[in-house]
Amino acid sequence: MTRIDVLLQGIPGRSSQGYLGQASAALVDESTVVDVGSLARRPLLTDALDEVGVDPNDVEDVLLTHVHFDHCDNVDLFENATVHVYEEELARVRNGEYDWATPRNAAAMLDSLGVEPFALGDTVGGLEAFPTPGHTEHHVGFLLSQGDRTYGFTGDAVKNTREVATENPMVLHDKREAIETIRDVKSRVDLVIPGHDSPFYIEDGAPVPTVDVDFGVNLQTSPEAAVTADLSTSRSTLRELPEDVSLASSRQAFH
Ligand SMILES: [Zn+2]
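Above are the sequence and the zinc ion SMILES. Below is the predicted complex in structure-token form.
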């Protein structure tokens, strides 16, 4: 049975002072990593790998849903891995076609690591790449079928439960395409490992969350006062994760 360890849980919180950019990273069978998180999450990512007993140097394949900073920053942590990027997305960054969330050094970074382009429908790192355009033009997701359940690693094509419930996604490219993508994901995926939320089920087209996380955001507004922001979301119905999916529990201490 293929095992999935969610190394970084995405956070669905929003801020009036910029995007939080706290994206998911998942480990499949201790050898494939899907998305790698922003530099802000690097210590948390290494802690999570420690926790599951995997040396980053032993990871064989890194798959990126798209080349945005919050999904690709830490790609160099996996020095021995083959980095897999959709061929159209790789061409975009090599051609210098940047939106605001694409690191300007992305092409140099990927080329220095031995990136391998793939096509839609290819199997990479044991997962099937499928088109999920809208958030960005060349966004891809990855599918894993296990038993009678299909898992979808959706990156920013499906960021959180709200986007499934409302079909009102945040996009940088094409909203109509993004809504079609959400509907497509709903029709073929049973458990979503989303870009910016904890894993959730899709049942009858609606999201069913699995965990309610206290993210512990500590706003250090003055030497005297530290305010903890409540980013917990309303989770009226929670369902347990399947036994082949686990969440790394590492949390960094706040200072
Ligand atoms: Zn993105």
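The helical segments are 42-52, 69-72, 87-94, 106-112, 161-166, 175-188.
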